[in-house]
Amino acid sequence: MKKHLQISIIILTLIVSCKQKETKKMESIEYKPTTELNTKTEQSTLKNEKIKKEKIDYNLESNSIKFDNNLVEKLYKNLKSNFEIDFELSHLNNALNGIKMSELKNGKIFEKEMLFENFNCECYDKITISYSENRFLLDIYEEFFEKELDWCPESSYRYSFKIVNKTISDLKLDFMAG
User: Which of 10, 83, 99, 116 is 20 to 30 Å apart from 54, CA to CA?
Assistant: First the structure.
């Protein structure tokens, strides 16, 4: 019986020691994925913070961007190459130069009345710029001088476009009337 008891004690000791080793292995296995998950979460958080910072930087930059001679000239060249227009670069520059993108994006509308003709008459034209649905809207209202008529025939055009990296993109003629 003594021998039987000794064998039982040895077997129990072996079982207990094996269980302790398994428990240690299980504990170390459980912690590794948590550490990896934390690292991935931290990387994801850093990536999200970087994206937010880039968006803030872009918004700050786009808020300070104005229509300057260069941007107005790009717009004019795009209009001239894609559509038949009856006004000059100087007219567009006179109407748009110095307008801040942020003011347009906040709902402000700018309108300038002028003569597209090279002589004095009562046929006034207008250039209006506004912003809606992520696009800039350029409205051109033209009155044409006709010597035989006692009124000025008119036409209207609406162009829309985007500005990406200080360049005109996706220029479209939305409607034409007149």
Answer: 99
